[in-house]
Amino acid sequence: MEFAAFAEDAAAIEAESADLAIVESVRDLFEAAGEDLPTVTRFVQGRVFPAHESTTLDIGPALCYEAIARAAGQNVSAADVESRVATVGDVGEVAADYEFGGQRGLGSFGGGGREALTVGEVAAELDTLATLDGSGSQDRKLDVLFGLFNRTDPDEARYLARIVLSEMRIGVGEGTVRDAIAAAFDVPIEAVERALHVSNDYGLVATVARDEGEDGLDDIHLEIGRPVQAMLAQAGTVSEALGDWGRAAVEWKYDGARVQVHYDGDSVSLYSRNMEDVTDPLPEIVSFVETNLGAPAILDGEVVAVDDDGDPLPFQAVLRRFRRKHDVAKAREEVEVELRAFDCLHADGEDLLDTPLTDRHDRLGSLLSAGVAEVAVTDDPDEVAAVETAALDAGHEGIMLKDPESTYSPGRRGKHWLKRKPDVETLDLVATGAEWGEGRRAEFLGTFELSVRTPDGFETIGNVATGITDEELADLTDLLEPHVRSEDGQTVDVAPAVVFEVGYEEIQTSPTYSSGFALRFPRFLGVRADKDLEDADSLARVERLADHAATGSD
């Protein structure tokens, strides 16, 4: 396919405004692409390489501007190009304004009469660009880019510049390409989508759809060494999870970096959330997988940084390891990392994407002898709170809530995986009671009764035990003990004197507490030493907040 024909079709697609018309235009382009179909499916999205590959051109705007300037002639500088791009806002439009084809140079394909540039030639030259590295590579890249621009007409230059800088901007996204493949080759959208999920290769899926139809698409499976997009979570609440699913799989939310583990039985490959190959920076994870994984598999998990005691370090410590390309041994001495695997996408030749979450986790546990993240499946809010408390006490971010029956949908951010929302509303409540802790916390007050202010005194609204460290428990015990009025076993009656700041998920009506309301998933945030009892929140405010939440008013 001539690159001019691709550019003409791209311009027509860009001119369309309706989604259906865009899909139809992309469909026509795919039908005409011939042997260049895999490349065309990528170029139309502004991609040079398959989505699962970490290969990049490593070409910044400055180098592209220099190539455009050289092809445009002696009276044009890279600064001129940069200035015009700043004004126009589109490198493609700027490139299209120049008259190319008259310049000579090492990469100009001999200059003179301009031969038609093909999609295949553009792809081959861009492949060459990606391989250039080391001393003098920037000059060689400039020569190759100059040679390409020197063979383009205005429309070709517009889209070449955009492809090189990954700024296609013609209104074609992944969904458009999916629908266009289905329309062009008369295959079900669902079959295309499934094949894209397991391959993460639009060119492959388009070619198979054209040449082998639906049966061929059904034969596309996960491939060890070819990463797929990670399934994503959205913010949510415990109430939403239990209300929608009946029960939830609860996991710790680690403060680490997502990693996809591929093991073929001999070698290990590790990929980041963005599908970048991070095998070399993480040699201890490679060794861990080789030692503990019993069969070829693709796993999903987190890499966490830990200190000498095994306690988690902040996310920034993990990033230092992921980004290290040199002196890996030194970096390993400075920051130790461990794997926490929580999902299994493929096991010993079997794809598991359509298998329920709990079954995938069971399979994970049967394959990996260590490093498997624990999961609790429950319909009990108190058990969810206990898992969250344990996660926070261990130094992690909180919890993940997952539908136990959910399948694994690569790249999707749906309602089947939820990150528990941080508390967005707070109340200043009075501590009116407590309970002594158990185990290692037996010498501390561990659960605190909360009350709201009323004209006649205080009425209970719940208890809080989440979000409190051992050190804080010791301080709170010292603070409240002078105000203890009586004790009955583990239960302590406390005179109103200390105001807590408490975050919560929502307020519900409840007969359990004397206020008539209950806080869902309250979390201790601190002591309001600056507030007296009369400054604590009133029952009237709680009633307003509950009413606003129920009616959706501001």
Tell me the distance between the termini: 58 Å
| Rg calculated over all Cα atoms | 30 Å
Mean of pLDDT: 90
| Percent of residues in beta strands | 15-25%
- For the record, what CATH class of the largest domain applies? Alpha Beta
CATH-defined fold name of the largest domain: D-amino Acid Aminotransferase, Chain A, domain 1
**Can you tell me the number of structural domains?**
3
The fourth-level CATH homologous superfamily of the largest domain is DNA ligase/mRNA capping enzyme
Approximate shape: elongated
Question: What would you note in describing this structure?
Answer:
Helices cover 40% and strands 22% of the residues. It is of the alpha+beta class and 554 residues long. The protein has three domains: 47-164, DNA ligase, ATP-dependent, N-terminal domain (DNA ligase i, domain 1), CATH 1.10.3260.10; 232-420, D-amino Acid Aminotransferase, Chain A, domain 1 (2-Layer Sandwich), CATH 3.30.470; 425-551, Beta Barrel (OB fold (Dihydrolipoamide Acetyltransferase, E2P)). Strands 11, 12, 13, 14, 15, 16 and 19 form a seven-stranded antiparallel beta sheet that branches. Strands 1-10-9-2-8 form a five-stranded mixed beta sheet. A five-stranded antiparallel beta sheet has the order 4-3-5-6-7. A hairpin with a 4-residue loop joins strand 3 (257-263) and strand 4. Helix 3 (37-43) crosses helix 12, helix 10 (174-185) crosses helix 11 (189-199) and helix 10 (174-185) packs across helix 12 (202-218).
